[in-house]
Structure formats: structure tokens, C-alpha cells
Design a protein that fits this description.
The protein has twelve helices and no strands. The protein is mainly alpha-helical. The longest helix is centred in the last third of the chain and has 21 residues. It is globular and about 55 Å long.
């Protein structure tokens, strides 16, 4: 399939979390720790420190710090009135950290399963925040999403792999030395085919591409907002064949 593409990106579980953590101050951690109405702030803060400092999670983490990480993951830094969380760049740093941490924690050795939201929602929140930040994390993000795909059953019934694939296309296209167009076309082809196979196998119908757009809390899904961003990405330096895959994928996300 596209194992050469995945392996060529040098998958790494901790590269992105560590890179973001280098920009997370103690006062940001304290604000995250206070996200649940100031409940158990000291416990949350103590559990957040090893995540930032060592990319290490306590077990179990369902309450400390899982609860506050999930609340900050839901935050909307572009809405000044949104609480908990901070507005503008500070808020995006905090949301990127929380989202990267939650995504990392779901895999070994931590195997965190306390979050009720799909990883796809956490991932798109991460993407939107990384786009807002003044630091280029595309290399680390590519390596991390490649790891997510490497750890997943790409031919099983896990719908999250579809969102990992779109994310990998996005981050890979932003690399100074991206994978070959042929390998990215192969990934696009797999994405469209796998979505159709999963949609057919699942009960009920979907009136929208990408499994009816998941992660809408509330609708529209943040993946739909991402659609035009992907469709309008300047990829004129790439082949017409790749452009003819990437742009329709973005357009279909936004067709609602």
C-alpha cells in the first residue's frame, strides 16, 4: 500500500508533543489545570507537568489531567468570550498542547480511553491551532500523524484512519521536501476507496462524504471548515494529477 510513504516520514509518537511543550509556560499549565471550575487544581497541575516536561502521562489519567485536557481541547481561541481557555495565540498554544497530548495518550504505553470524543475531533482542533501558531510544526506533525497511521488497522473498521489520512496529506504538502506526488496520490486513492467501503459496511446512510462528517459538536463539524482551506491550498508546484485529487477532497468536505 503506502507503507513507504509512512516509513519515509520517520514516524515518531512524541516529536510533536515535545515540540509544542517547549512553548508551554507554567502559567499556561496552571490555566489548563483550572479549566474544570478550579476543581482539584493542584492535582491537575502536577499531572500536567510530566506531560510537558517529559512527554509522560500518569496512569490512570481519566480525571487528572484528562478532564482539563479535554475541556481545553474543546476551547475556541478565536471566540474571546469562550471559557475555559484563552483567546488568540495563547489559547491556540494551550489547545494545541491539550490536543497533541490527548492524541498521544491513546496509544501505548498509556492506552488512554477516557475521552468520549472521537480522536478525529481532537485532530482537527489540533490542525486549526497549528495553523494559527507562529511556529512551523509541519515536520513534527507529519511524523506524529504517520505514527498514528502506523499504529492503526488501516483495513479494519476504524473510521479514524480516514481523518489521519487527510491530516497526513495536509502536513506532507507543507513540508519543504514533501513525499513524491505518486505516493500522495496513492494515499488519496486509498482514502476515497476506504471511505466508500466503510460507509457501505456501516448501518444507516450518510448524506455527506467522509462518513457524514463526524466530530460536529455542534454542527457544522470543524472538518467542514477545513474543507475550503484544503481545497484552496496552493499546490501548483505539484502535478496536475495530485491537484485533481486534493482539491476535490477539500471541496467534498465543504460541500454542505
Amino acid at each position: 500500500m503506502f507503507s513507504a510513504l509512512i516509513n519515509g516520514l520517520n514516524p515518531n509518537p512524541d516529536a510533536l508533543l515535545r515540540a509544542i511543550s517547549a512553548h508551554i509556560s507554567d502559567d499556561m499549565l496552571e490555566e489548563i489545570a483550572r479549566a474544570d471550575y478550579d476543581e482539584e487544581v493542584e492535582g491537575h497541575f502536577a499531572a500536567l507537568l510530566p506531560i510537558r516536561n517529559e512527554a509522560r502521562f500518569i496512569v490512570p489519567m481519566q480525571w487528572c489531567p484528562g478532564e482539563v485536557l479535554e475541556l481545553i481541547r474543546y476551547s475556541q481561541p478565536d471566540r474571546p468570550d469562550w471559557k475555559p481557555g484563552s483567546p488568540k495565540i495563547r489559547g491556540h498554544w494551550m489547545r494545541a498542547f491539550a490536543s497533541a497530548a490527548l492524541l498521544r495518550a491513546q496509544f501505548p504505553p498509556w492506552n488512554y480511553r477516557g475521552d468520549a470524543a472521537e480522536p478525529s475531533l481532537t485532530l482537527i482542533q489540533l490542525i486549526h491551532s497549528l495553523r494559527a501558531l507562529p511556529v512551523d510544526f509541519n515536520i513534527e506533525a507529519s511524523r506524529f500523524v504517520a505514527y498514528l497511521m502506523q499504529q492503526s488497522n488501516l483495513e479494519g473498521d476504524d473510521e479514524e484512519v480516514l481523518y489521519y489520512a487527510i491530516s497526513l496529506i495536509w502536513f506532507a504538502l507543507h513540508l519543504d521536501e514533501p513525499p513524491t506526488d505518486e505516493s500522495l496520490i496513492e494515499l488519496c486513492e486509498w482514502l476515497v476507496l476506504r471511505e466508500a467501503q466503510l460507509a457501505e459496511s456501516l448501518p444507516g446512510g450518510f448524506d455527506r462524504w467522509l462518513l457524514g462528517i463526524r466530530g460536529a459538536y455542534p454542527p457544522p463539524s470543524p472538518w467542514e471548515r477545513f474543507g475550503p482551506i484544503l481545497a484552496e491550498l496552493d499546490i501548483t508546484a505539484h502535478s496536475i494529477q495530485l491537484q485533481d485529487w486534493v482539491r476535490p477532497i477539500g471541496s467534498q468536505l465543504d460541500e454542505g
